[in-house]
Amino acid sequence: MPSTRFAPPTEVPGLAARRIAADILDGVLHKRRTLDEQLEGPTAHPGLKALADRDRALMRRLVATILRRLGTLGHLLSRLLDRGIPTDAPRAQSALLIGAAQILWMDVPDHAAVDLAVRLVQSDRRAAKYAGLVNAVLRRCAREGQSLIDEVRSESLDTPSWLMARWSGHYGESAAKAIAAALSHEPALDLTVKANAAHWATRLHGETLPTGTVRTSLQGSVTMLPGFSEGQWWVQDAAAALPARLFGDIKGRRVIDLCAAPGGKTAQLAQAGAEVTAIDRSPNRVARLRENLGRLSLEARSLVADAIEWQDDAAGHGFDGVLVDAPCSATGTIRRHPDVAWLKQDSDIAALTALQQRLLNRAITLLRPGGTLVYCTCSLEPEEGEQVVAALLASDTGIRRVPVGVDEVAGLADIVTPAGDLRTLPCHLAHDDPTLGGLDGFYAARLTRS
Ligand SMILES: C[S@@+](CC[C@H](N)C(=O)[O-])C[C@H]1O[C@@H](n2cnc3c(N)ncnc32)[C@H](O)[C@@H]1O
């Protein structure tokens, strides 16, 4: 009989979620892998399948909280560790971050947060020697952590300085601080509903925003929420829902969505009754678009293609509407994707601008005279938005801006620029409860061709 002494111990509840959180955190911080690629699709962490929905939601929240408060956590740990964070054992670093984030901001008892962090380092060959240190530092964090972080200005610590400098330059110092403050909260869940927003707001314990989006603070897996499997709504930030509305009444019109996947805006166009062609160059993402449209019982012709090179008979006559939701630095989505703040760098922006210009130039060639073109990005950087459109308007006299009226965006005057473009900031749509306020940062311009 084998000795039971050598049987693997049953894992302590909650440890798997912390271990996966540590792996994913290491993926972002040391391997430059995005949260999305580690959480979804074929490259997702293999351990996720075995996690219960509740543990998966906790793990996702834990990683997001750490990335949101990374600067503050770094400052705090440097105050609590005489010799700094151990550099020879990445798992010791992630265990400290995971323990401290739970103690400070999550609904986890301090003793459980400390115990699980200690177990995390004990199970790693290189980090095991730091078990005593992790235990002592986290116990001290439970006693003194809050007062140590009260001494610092968290929002500037938690936003990389190159982004703070950009936002101060573009929007002014106080707006930059308000943006950074808005990024420190887990945002609410925003849904675009096919119909009957008031009904879904009630069923999902949320509210209907002036723009029609249903906003709820319900947490956990969206697939379990009422209306998901019936295809009555899709997840879409309230700001992301605005650009497709700028086409106005498009029932029966031919519209092409050039950067379509995973299909949030394609779904809006199809739901509005347009005859939609949806193109994206990523096969995996087009597969998701098809899955999403299928669940929603909406129809669009979808294609995997590079929009710049795509040729088709349908293109010859020109489309009534062209949407370019261009790939971008995504700095407007840091509320929902806090890894973006640490993965992107200043030099990425210039590289993306060239692609955005090419996509916009291509889009113009697909537009029939008098048709409507909407160009948008989820970036806060004017180089990817206002400046791309300004360059086009300066170089092509046949293109004209059709200014967005405040009445088209539910009277939200703050989000329309003097030139008549849409510009949302994470600090817009403020709410008494900060977790129910805010918008992703989006830019959109509406153009036409004579
Ligand atoms: C911001 S995302 C689009 C989000 C989408 N419109 C939605 O609302 O769900 C940008 C998309 O552009 C795609 N893309 C990038 N370059 C492209 C190109 N040259 N042709 C077609 N698609 C492209 C990417 O694969 C990515 O899916």
Automatic annotation (TrEMBL):
Tell me the protein's name. Answer: MFS transporter
Please list the GO terms describing molecular function: RNA binding; RNA methyltransferase activity
Family matches, as InterPro entries: MeTrfase_RsmB-F_NOP2_cat, MeTrfase_RsmB-F_NOP2_dom, NusB-like_sf, NusB_RsmB_TIM44, RCMT, SAM-dependent_MTases_sf
Q: Where is the signal peptide?
A: none
Give the family from UniProt. Answer: Belongs to the class I-like SAM-binding methyltransferase superfamily. RsmB/NOP family.
PROSITE patterns attached to this UniProt entry: SAM_MT_RSMB_NOP
For the SAM-dependent MTase RsmB/NOP-type domain, which residue ranges apply?
164-450
CDD domains assigned: AdoMet_MTases
Sorted keywords for this record are:
Methyltransferase, RNA-binding, S-adenosyl-L-methionine, Transferase
Q: Which residues bind S-adenosyl-L-methionine?
A: 259-265, 280, 306, 325
Pfam name, any one = Methyltr_RsmB-F
Catalytic residues, chain numbering: 378 (nucleophile)
Gene Ontology terms: biological process: regulation of DNA-templated transcription; RNA methylation
The gene coding this protein: sun
